[in-house]
Design brief:
Elements (H helix, E strand, L loop, with lengths): L2 E8 L9 E9 L5 E6 L4 H8 L4 E4 L2 H10 L7 E4 H8 L7 H9 L5 H12 L5 H10 L6 H35 L6 H22 L5 H61 L1 H57 L4 H12 L2 H5 L4
Parallel strand pairs: 1-4, 4-5
Antiparallel strand pairs: 1-2, 2-3
């Protein structure tokens, strides 16, 4: 079969608003070598190849590329294959990116163009190849065109090589499973269901989904009616449950009242049976009260005696001090110190002088 790998470079992810920078293509020669090219999406040869049902194209997540091409007026009638979907069917737990699979199967030499492209993206302070494509399209001299073309051609060649390896593995698994009696194999699912469904999904993403508005309105009205019926039934059931709970609580309250009255009567009987015990408790409390009053009176008497002794000591000391001051007064009556002493004695409070003899 005539197989061509296809990959496009764009300025973004939205096929309606973003632009196509170029379309990379690659084919394998009979001698095993690869030829590649980087075309404009308006190229007539590209249009004729994609419109021919006998031709085959392969890409990695090719749905993305075809949406841009269809939105720009190209017709896709050829057979379409996807290496990402095939890799996922063979091992869903592996990394499914084209760069990851190329590094795994072909080594670091298969990503030379990717390294150069990353260097330029960093140089322009961009985030991805889309920023580099936009910068190149907006400039007059297209300074990054060659680097983007080499990078895209590298992706196309890696995609072709990857498709060969993965399809060979899928065919080997298919042969073993058919020998074991299985009719549904990963390869049959890929060719008969997965890839045709990819084209349907692509068409739905581009055109949208037709909606029967009248049918939706009727279905909405039906759902609303059913929801109202269910709400009425739920409220009725809730009311029945609430009445049951209220009756249960009422019966429990009556039972508690009856048990409470029984406890009160039993308490009264206990009080009438044991009057002697209460009398003994009251007698002991009265005796303790009297003992406490007695000890308080004794404490007061002791405090009065101690205060009386303190007053005596203070009066004796005041008398001695006063006598000493009188002697000093007589000896120093005619001096300046005596005059000052007289003024000090006059300032002594009357109460202190009154308790001392002159």
């Amino acid at each position: 079969m005539k197989l061509m790998a296809l990959d496009i470079e764009t300025t973004g992810l939205n096929p309606r608003t973003d632009r196509i920078h170029g379309v990379g293509v690659a084919m394998q020669q009979p001698d095993g070598s690869f030829i590649s090219d980087y075309l404009d999406h308006t190229d007539e040869g590209l249009r004729q190849y994609l419109a021919n049902p006998s031709n085959h194209i392969v890409g990695h997540n090719i749905r993305f590329d075809l949406k841009f091409l269809i939105n720009n007026g190209l017709t896709i009638n050829c057979q379409v294959w996807d290496t990402k979907l095939l890799a996922q069917l063979l091992d869903e737990n592996q990394a499914l990116g084209l760069k990851d699979l190329s590094l795994r199967f072909f080594g670091e030499n298969s990503l030379k163009g990717k390294r150069e492209l990353d260097r330029l993206v960093t140089y322009i302070n961009g985030r991805s190849v889309a920023d580099l494509c936009a910068r190149d399209l907006d400039s007059d001299d297209s300074p990054y065109y060659d680097t983007i073309a080499e990078y895209c051609a590298e992706d196309c060649i890696n995609t072709l090589k990857l498709f060969t390896i993965l399809s060979d593995r899928a065919k080997a698994i298919d042969a073993k499973m058919r020998e074991a009696g299985y009719t549904n194999t990963p390869l049959s699912y890929y060719t008969e269901e997965a890839m045709p469904l990819e084209l349907v999904l692509m068409d739905m993403e581009l055109r949208g989904i037709a909606i029967n508005e009248e049918g939706l309105r009727a279905f909405r009205a039906e759902l609303l009616q059913k929801s109202r019926q269910l709400q009425a039934e739920m409220s009725l059931l809730a009311a029945m449950e609430i009445t049951k709970i209220e009756e249960q609580l009422y019966e429990e309250a009556i039972a508690k009242k009856k048990t409470g009255k029984a406890k009160q009567t039993s308490k009264r009987k206990a009080k009438s049976i044991r009057p002697s015990l209460i009398g003994k408790v009251m007698n002991t409390l009265e005796s303790l009260f009297l003992i406490g009053i007695k000890y308080l009176l004794l404490l007061l008497v002791k405090l009065i005696r101690v205060s009386h002794r303190l007053l005596k000591v203070l009066s004796v000391n005041c008398t001695k001090l006063w006598k000493k001051l009188i002697r000093l007064k007589k000896s120093l009556a005619r001096t300046k110190i005596g005059k000052r002493l007289r003024s000090l004695l006059r300032r002594i409070p009357v109460k202190i002088r009154g308790c001392c003899p002159r």
